[in-house]
Design goal:
- The protein is α+β, with helices and mostly antiparallel strands.
- The chain has four helices and eight strands.
- Strands 1, 2, 3, 4, 5, 6, 7 and 8 form an eight-stranded antiparallel beta sheet that branches.
- It is globular, with a radius of gyration of 15 Å.
- It starts with 6 loop residues before the first helix and ends in an 11-residue tail after the last strand.
DNA sequence: TGCCCGATTAACT
DNA sequence: GTTAATCGGGCAA
């Protein structure tokens, strides 16, 4: 059986945790799959929500590692992050794409799409497919409804610039599973 | 207070 | 290629 990822896994540099998450599996109430794309956001990074200090929205980022930070994107979509580093560091990994493996019927119904490749390929899409919303903000990742397991075996991880940001846009802090058809966007 | 922008997406031309 | 949807945060006034 795969090893469950506990809080200690996240109590490290966000730049170590992010690539280590590629190939891990995430389920929310049994629905989900394999993480194939993530991005790292450090509190010293101008693109990070925590860069300018705590607010109501980003408060969870300033708490201990191993918890979910969920925020509303463009006033429309939900996006989920995993908080990393010792408490107060305010760094997190944005989950950007999942290769679906469980709960296809529910995901298709929630997404209103039968295109398997588009079910979880994008931070907003995966939250819709897994039904992640503000009620998951601040929940621990090692207890239900979350289930998170370490990858088994070796994977090839590629890195490149993050997507959709203007500040620190050149930093290669997007990580993906090499060649995966479920990436939100291919790596150059 | 008001205005602009954003870790996005789908539906347009 | 462009644009609308829609709201929290940053910053000027």
């Amino acid at each position: 059986m795969p090893k469950r990822l506990t809080k200690s896994f996240f109590n490290r540099s966000v730049h170590e945790v992010a690539p280590d998450l590629i190939g891990a599996t995430l389920f929310v109430d049994g629905v989900g799959g394999r993480l194939v794309e993530v991005e790292a956001y450090h509190h010293t990074d101008p693109a990070a929500h925590s860069f300018r200090g705590p607010t109501d929205r980003n408060a969870i980022m300033f708490g201990p590692p191993g918890y979910a930070y969920v925020y509303r994107s463009y006033g429309i979509h939900w996006c989920v992050n995993f908080v990393c580093e010792p408490k107060g560091s305010a760094s997190a990994v944005l989950i950007r794409a999942i290769e679906p493996t469980a709960g296809f019927a529910l995901m298709r119904r929630r997404r209103g799409s039968s295109d398997e490749r588009l079910l979880c390929s994008g931070p907003g899409r995966l939250c819709e497919a897994l039904r992640i919303t503000s009620r998951h903000n601040g929940l621990a990742l090692d207890v239900p409804p979350f289930e998170l397991f370490a990858r088994q075996g070796e994977v090839e991880v590629v890195a490149g610039p993050r997507i959709g940001i203007t500040k620190a846009a050149e930093k290669p802090w997007r990580y993906g599973l090499k060649g995966s058809p479920f990436l939100s966007k291919p790596f150059a």
